Amino acid sequence: MSTPSSTLNRPHPLLADWALTDGLAWIHIFKAALAAFLALWIAMRLDLPQPRTAMTTVFVVMQPQSGMVLAKSFYRFCGTLVGLVVMLALISLFSQQPVLFLSATALWVGICTAGAARNRNFRSYGFVLSGYTAALIGIPAAQHADAAFLTAMTRVAEVSLGILCSGAISALVFPRHAGEQVRATVRKRFTAFVEYVSKALGGGIERSQIESINAAFVADVVGLEAARSVAVFEDPDTRMRSGRVARLNGEFMSASTRFHALHQLMNRLRVNGAAATVDALEPYFREVAPLLSAAGGPVEKAADAVHAAAQLDTFKAALPKRIRATRCALDPASDLLEFDTAAELLYRFVDDLHAYTLTYASLAVPTHEREDRITRYVPKTSLLAAGVSGLRAFVVILVLSGFWIMSAWPSGGTAVLDAAAVIALASSSPRPTQMAFQMAGGTALAAVAGMIVVFALYPHIDGFLLLSAVLLPFLMLGVFISTRPGMMGVGVGYCIFFCFLAGPDNVIQYDPSAFINDAIALVVSMLVCSMAFAVLLPTDAPWLRRLLTRELRRQVVTASKSSLTGLAMRFESGARDLLSQIDALAAGREDLQREALRWMFAVLEVGHAVIDLRTELSRSDTGTDTGTTARASRASIKQALHQVARLFDHPTPRRFHAALSATTLAIDDLRAQLDTVHEPREERRRLQRMSSHLHFIRTALLDPQSPLGQLSQQEPPQKGAPHAA
């Protein structure tokens, strides 16, 4: 029984939970306010013309984690410099021709928006700022071209000051590091994968669980790459391990894909009644899970993985000889191709798992040789979707610019430059229409709060301390809203445009009509952006989801035709990145998400086999293989790869049966070569491996759980025989 003193010494569970949730949010709120006031104070002391620009920059770049702030600040600074150079060039060329100047600005913003949609994480933010800075600096400066350079330099100084203050406060005051998130994700994922492998090999897991686990793994892969890309900005220790974390991500993708392929193949063998093959291989499966343990318990920390890697190495070294002995003991009447295919997948899975465990173990030390060979995550974005985003931004800026010129609205320039920022920022959001609309709501709230501050409170205060006390609750309100689930757009719109409208300058202008005009311009420009997202090829329409699904299928085409150098990583990361985008678009639609996940499984299984097959072919091309039979089998293999790529490019019953026929023909050619030609032992093993890859592709095509399975039930059109040729 606990004593009262021991009870008092333990933190209350509710208090501990608050400290890890809302407590962290309030720390972020106070840090953002502190950084904003620091930037405002320094800007005023330096007598910069618009200190509110520095304060606005703080709320643009401030994030809960230090690495995120530094990464966002870095890309903002780079984007600002690029936008500055471009806009000075446009002003020098078109400052006396408003139509040409605004058209060139709209074109530049469209290009930058397309770049933002094409890229990922904070790199996209650099493109956003390249376009937004050009509009922010250029539109006001073009109206006074003689002072354009000085105006541009002061804007860059104000933005740079906001960036420096954000980075300093984030790194020095109660810092939260993205590196901690990376380490926690790596550890949690390794443990979860080991548990998944153990349960699946033991047959204690349902398909629905497999789908949910693999969907979580996809989110982990994309999230880990995002966290790693910002953690490198934090400290040297994280940078020294960054390459290994990237490599770990790639090896995890390969191991998880290989294991899923092996698990699916064993299920197909059970369904098809291949009991001899299943019984012969299951003892090996039961041996894998105990290898992933240390001191009788599951591996969790990187240091504990050293022993597991050594056990896997020993198991892997002995596996080929043991497999050959098992194969010799099989009944000659059984289908050895089934056994060879499963055994090859088992060996490749163990090899990938060993590499994954070795890299995980290497994270226990600051430097390691596995840091030298880095495999980078390569995101995949549809070029057409990015082009649509750029075209939409171009049209919006052009329409608002035309309205400004025709109406001579004093705040028309504000509407144009605000639209340039919002259209680019929202384009990278999964729900751009909702994001722009929320920002409009936040800006309207900021306009009301700003009127109270500027016209009711400012005339009665004197001194920076009193100014800070007046602004503090209004700024904290905006940051607090941005931390609430589903309210990010409202909070961002409020924080940024409250500073834009009501942020103090060294010389404050009390002009109610200008204030109201600017507020109306901001809200109207955001509503126009929201309407553009909803009307001009809307991103939540089925067309984009279908486009991304086709891009996902075309990863098999990439696996069939692209250069083999670095192809496995490009293929793996591209497929998962596309699935994460489809999931975001299909949020709340479990049927659509499940369909996309099934396509990813089919793409990964077949694509991996295609890459393995092409790798074996490339070894053959550089070897001593010159026989006429070998050349004939190589031709049929390449034809099978071509037909499989055509099938995934555009699935139809005719293409399905053509791919199936071509694959069967290639298998028959290889088996005939094995039966009639006495090749060296290593060459025979290579041919067996190629047969295994082709047979796996064939079984994957015929899998009734695959999205391609329904095509097998349909007869192709009767326009000629669906021959492989």
UniProtKB/TrEMBL annotation:
Predominant location category: membrane
Subcellular location: Cell membrane
Keyword Transmembrane recorded: yes
Top-level taxonomic group: Bacteria
Alphabetic keyword roster: Cell membrane, Membrane, Transmembrane, Transmembrane helix, Transport
Transmembrane spans: 23-43, 74-94, 100-117, 124-142, 148-174, 383-405, 439-458, 464-481, 486-503, 515-537
GO cellular component: plasma membrane
Regions of compositional bias (Polar residues) in chain numbering: 707-716
Protein name (database record): Putative membrane protein
Pfam family, one: FUSC
GO molecular function: transmembrane transporter activity
Region Disordered: start-end pairs: 705-725
Coiled coil start-end: none
Keyword Methyltransferase on entry: no
Membrane topology: Multi-pass membrane protein
